[in-house]
UniProtKB/TrEMBL annotation:
One of its GO terms (cellular component) is nucleoplasm. GO terms for molecular function: DNA binding; DNA-binding transcription factor activity, RNA polymerase II-specific. It comes from Nycticryphes semicollaris. CDD domains: SH2_STAT4 (cd10375), STAT4_CCD (cd16854), STAT4_DBD (cd16848). Residues 564-666 form the SH2 domain. InterPro entries: p53-like_TF_DNA-bd_sf (IPR008967), SH2 (IPR000980), SH2_dom_sf (IPR036860), STAT (IPR001217), STAT4_CC (IPR046991), STAT4_DBD (IPR029839), STAT4_SH2 (IPR035856), STAT_linker (IPR048988). This is Signal transducer and activator of transcription. Pfam families: SH2, STAT_alpha, STAT_bind, STAT_int, STAT_linker. Keywords: Acetylation, Activator, ADP-ribosylation, Coiled coil, Cytoplasm, DNA-binding, Isopeptide bond, Methylation, Nucleus, Phosphoprotein, SH2 domain, Transcription, Transcription regulation, Ubl conjugation. The keyword Lipoprotein does not apply. GO terms for biological process: cell surface receptor signaling pathway via JAK-STAT; defense response to virus; negative regulation of developmental process; regulation of apoptotic process; type I interferon-mediated signaling pathway; type II interferon-mediated signaling pathway. Belongs to the transcription factor STAT family.
Amino acid sequence: MSQWSQVQQLEIKFLEQVDQFYDDNFPMEIRHLLAQWIESQDWEAASNNEAMATILLQNLLIQVDEQLDRVSQEKNLLLIHNLKRIRKLLQGKYHGNPMHIAVIISNCLREERRILAAASMPVQGPLEKSLQNSVVSERQRNVEHKVSAIKNSAQMTDQDVKYLEDLQEEFDFRYKTIQSLEQSDKNSALIKQEMLALQAMLNTLDYKRKEVLSKIGRVIHEIDMLMSNMLTEELLDWKRRQQIACIGGPLHGGLDQLQNCFTLLAESLFQVRRQLEKLDELLTRLTYDGDPIPVQRPQLLEKVNFLLYNLFRNSFVVERQPCMPTHPQRPMVLKTLIQFTVKLRLLIKLPELNYQIRVKATIDNNRRFVLCGTHVKAMNMDESANGSLSVVFRHLQPKEMKSSAGSKGNEGPHMVTEELHSISFETQVCLYGLTINLETSSLPVVMISNVSQLPNAWASIIWYNLSTNDPQNLSFFNNPPAATLSQLLEVLSWQFSSYVGRGLNSEQLNMLAEKLTGQQVSYSDYQLSWAKFCKEHLPGKSFTFWVWLEAILDLIKKHILPLWIDGYIMGFVSKEKERILLKDKTPGTFLLRFSESNLGGITFTWVDQLENGDVTFHSVEPYNKGRLSALPFADILRDYKVIMADNVPENPLKYLYPDIPKDKAFGKHYSCQPNEVSKPSDGGGKGYVPSVFIPVSKILNDSTEPHSPSDLLPMSPSVYAVLREHLSPTVIETAVCCKLFHS
């Protein structure tokens, strides 16, 4: 079943979440019509590879054209209209930036997987629940409402300043007219009456000046309160959501809304600044005893400039954290001498700043690493499809400096994967007489010199971003805090949903909890140490919990991904639990689980019934990536045979737990069907005796466990002859075709 088909079967509350991230950037109509094609492309890789993204965009438009041809034949006028509009939109929006649509589609697919994983959970995880707090949503609406009100107030004050200017011009004209009269004329009753009118007008001017200054003061105060409270909280919440998204959690939307708020506030502050400049201009033309402008204006201008400085400083953010294109799902892990990408955005989007801000990238000041490549670039509004003022560094690479003695410090396999570093960015904004220095930094990154260090480095990234919302605690691992088990399990499920397309259910998480703690515990209050997660070996094993889990993720990704996505691999179940599950099932019922004693191994266990009615269980030696590279796991399940004493070899695997016929579950994943295989020649080639490799185990009468299939292979001609007597030619032909090697 395709991922989109699974999405369509969700409850309405989950469908509403799906609806939120489909818009004109990637219309849902295209997701629906091209579901299978979209899911078969590697959008994650394309999001960091411009050439690949260009090809995918071209192919996407071709797919849309094919759909247009189809619906044209069906004369579906509405769909024809929508597809033409969508095609024009996609080509216009992404023609100059194909990687952006790759990012969008990759994020949509990932978010679908996360929602599917959440739907399979009995309750929403604590981290995700906190991110979807209704109080937070209400605050977002309040911020947008207040920003809009502030903008309107600033515009209304513009009208007041204009009225004040007109009133002062009239006063100035009438006053100068009287001043130009002869002294004898000034003593007339009419002139005296005019002088009284001018005095009244001056009183009105004074009142209006105070009123305008008061309104400006209120606007400044409202902006100050909004920036100090709700807007700051919104920005911190977005940064926290970004942290969580980086380790597999829900996507962190809301940056466009923040940009709108920051931009409107900046525009309002500059508008107030112009109003204060206009008041200064009016002051030079007219002042008097008790004039409020020379008293209040300097303080208000100082406050406006202070708010602009803070607004700009907070608006400079890392939109996309450092990530190697080769490992898009492992951000913040950087390998020396390998390029990484990072994107920054200025949330104040003003046309005057386009191509005027040059950003410089550096690494933390410990002098151990330097950044090579293009590390100075200008921010612009052309690189992003949404027109944001941003810059993308695509050719940066960290290099470790040699020590003073001439040897390479810690470079090599012993580089510490708990040592945190930071990529820093600085720039300067010069606008309307203001010069503002801006600085920001990435979330902490871990440097590695060998890909073998990546699993432990990623564990460090997970633990840091799970445990703290401090964006710059580079000494975190000097004394790493414990994590709540419930939150850790939620993050572990995200690793599976984001990396291999299907999260973990409550039963699978229960097994992981017991493996981590060695007991059945309450999720809510149990605290797990960093050492337990990633440093200490599991009891009786030579590896840690995290190394064991990472090996399973790698196995799924490279060898059994379709079976995992379909939900046919129970995976995380102990030997004791699997026997409880199988004991009352029909003989031949089996389940698939990951090995607890072998790294990156998967095995299957089936239930059988002896002649006396007793139930027995058999588990095959775990298959690792070496064996699975030779033959797909689905083919192994199809062709597996067991020889019980001297009986005819047969496949003991009948039903996938609980009662799914094996071929119904795995049939679509078989690489070849028996009737599609050509019959092998009777004689061996070039004088050799023919040999075949077939997954066969032999179970002795006094053993309940089959020997490893590798103990029986390759088969001698005599054994092969016995098999020819008992197995159909089709089965042997299949084995010959597939060439299973156990080594």
